[in-house]
Design goal:
Radius of gyration: 18 Å
Shape: elongated
Helix content: 10-25%
Distance between the termini: 4 Å
Structural class: alpha+beta
Largest sheet: 6 strands, antiparallel
Number of strands: 6
Length: 160
């Protein structure tokens, strides 16, 4: 069931190809990098700055999945879709390591909008979300298909 729209919620009809959404920054520190890695990606180059010096990354690097998780948080905060940001598939690439000390922000652009042929109350938008650091360097590219609800007609029940 779709959640109750908030005051800033965007519906399918509110969106256009080319719309851009920019998140607030998220400051990443060494503790966050290590805590995430301990729980979800326990590899030496994510866990130990000294061990990471001799790795492919030549220093402590956040897990790509950590970068993806931060991206998701920033995406939800910056693209306020009615009913939430509900993914239907993604392509992801990591273009450079995310490091402790990075301030990440996400810039999302609507690449396409397609109405559902079988469900008239919704459509799919394709978002291209670029996560960049404080230097403006891209660290991740995420292209996602996201469910987007149409504005309910007066008196209609929200989508189930």
């Amino acid at each position: 069931m779709a959640s109750t729209p908030g005051p800033q919620s965007l519906f399918y009809e509110d969106l256009a190809v080319g719309d851009v959404f920019v998140s607030q920054p998220h400051q990443l520190d060494e503790g966050q990098v290590i805590r995430f890695a301990e729980q979800f990606d326990p590899q030496p180059f994510h866990l130990d700055a000294e061990a990471a010096k001799d790795s492919f990354f030549q220093g402590l690097a956040a897990s790509g999945w950590h970068t993806a998780a931060i991206t998701m948080r920033l995406l939800v905060q910056s693209v306020p879709l009615a009913g939430g940001v509900i993914g239907a598939g993604v392509e992801i690439s990591w273009t450079r390591p995310t490091r402790p000390g990075d301030a990440l922000k996400v810039t999302s652009t609507i690449a396409s909008i397609t109405a559902s042929r079988s469900k008239p109350d919704r459509g799919i938008i394709v978002l291209e979300s670029i996560t960049s650091n404080q230097l403006g360097e891209d660290v991740q590219k995420l292209v996602s298909k996201v469910l987007c609800f149409k504005r309910p007609e007066q008196g209609a029940k929200p989508a189930a």
